[in-house]
Specification:
The protein has 365 residues and is of the alpha/beta class. It contains 14 helices and 12 strands. The radius of gyration is 23 Å and the shape is flat.
Length: 365
């Protein structure tokens, strides 16, 4: 399944530098506002040590990781909801993504200009939030007007949706994003149909200096305090370090550099993994001599849904799934050894796929 994350933030906070590190795509990163006018798009692989281990055990002809599409969206400024700067373009681009990676600047450097003259991630976040909320209010008010007209006919569903829309609008008018409202079932489905910008799940990426990448600094402390009630994850990353890593040619050089910096993995790995989890997704694997591959599915998906990610015919004609737990595959060393040990299970349509399951589907069309 296609997953798209959009990198947003004010101009000059490190969005394009982060995008370059994530995708190694070489997007323009410059020290002036609106360096990114058209969104840059890149595909990145989701790091997963389990895939590497399966490759080692199976020795396939091909290995395919799961991927995430990353979009580097133009910087936003005050008044974007009214079309200031590249506001309309920014808002149209962000509406198309599944999740938001909100980059905030948390480092001091006189050589890198800030669009508002000083470093203040709390203020920067509030600027972005305000513009997105204002746009959502505009969107919802127009929709609500239509719903009220439709509800006059006596349609129960329209009347119910009017109530839900008014509840969401009250949250927005209180300067809170739509994602903070607790909805479920049909009410949640209705909100999702509105495609509100502030309803999208969000990951905050604090771009820090090298010395602050482990424990943060005064800027990150203030920012974490601000978002503590948002139920949102905050990742610390030094875009400068990530840019240096990308410049190194070999895996050995990159590992050595990470060791020197006291890091276990590149910061971009944390961002990618957190983005993947942000949408409630898990990975299952197929493993054979021709290919070992990772597949993305929603957490809680049943076996036919998982099969459908490979091909719609697999889901339509699903018969059963042969399932090996990843831990059993690794401990026993091969599929044949798993079968001999009686550790391969045959599951039907109601089986809920577990993260890391190694699966083979039987189907008939």
């Amino acid at each position: 399944m296609a997953l798209k994350c959009g990198i947003v933030g004010l101009p000059n906070v490190g969005k394009s530098t982060l995008f370059n590190a994530l995708t190694e795509a070489g997007a323009l990163a410059a020290n002036y506002p609106f360096a990114t006018k058209e969104p840059n798009v890149g595909m990145i692989t989701v790091p997963d040590d389990r895939l590497d281990k399966l490759e080692e055990l199976v020795n396939p002809q091909k290995v395919q990781a799961t991927t995430v599409e990353i979009v580097d969206i133009a910087g936003l400024i005050k008044g974007a909801s009214q079309g200031e700067g590249l506001g309309n373009q920014f808002l149209a681009n962000i509406r198309e993504v599944d999740a938001i990676l909100h980059v905030v600047r948390c480092f001091d450097d006189d050589n890198v200009v800030h669009v508002d003259g000083s470093v203040d991630p709390v203020r920067d976040k509030e600027i972005i939030d305000t513009e997105l909320i204002l746009k959502d209010i505009d969107t919802l008010e127009k929709r609500l007007e239509k719903l009220k007209k439709q509800a006059k006919s006596g349609n129960k569903e329209d009347k119910k949706n009017v109530g839900i829309a008014e509840e969401i609008l009250a949250i927005l008018n209180a300067d809170q994003p739509a994602r903070t409202i607790d909805l479920e079932g049909e009410a949640l489905d209705f909100m999702n149909e509105l495609y509100l910008l502030t309803a999208k799940p969000i990951l905050y990426v604090c771009n820090v200096d090298e010395d602050s990448v482990h424990d943060g600094n005064k800027h990150t402390a203030a920012f974490k305090e601000l978002v503590k009630n948002e139920n949102a994850e905050v990742v610390l990353i030094s875009a400068g370090i990530e840019a240096e890593i990308v410049e190194l040619d070999s895996l050995e050089e990159r590992k050595e550099y990470l060791t020197e910096m006291g890091l276990k993995e590149p910061g971009v790995n944390k961002v990618i993994t957190a983005s993947y989890k942000l949408l409630g997704l898990i990975t299952y694997f197929t493993a054979g001599e021709k290919e070992v591959r990772a597949w993305t599915i929603p957490d809680g998906a049943k076996a036919p849904q998982a099969a459908g990610v490979i091909h719609t015919d697999f889901e339509k004609g699903f018969i059963r799934a042969e399932v090996i737990k990843y831990a059993d595959f690794v401990s026993l060393g091969s599929e044949s050894a798993v079968k001999q040990a009686g550790k391969m299970n045959v599951e039907g349509k109601e089986y809920v796929v577990g993260d890391g399951d190694v699966m083979h589907f039987l189907f008939n069309v």
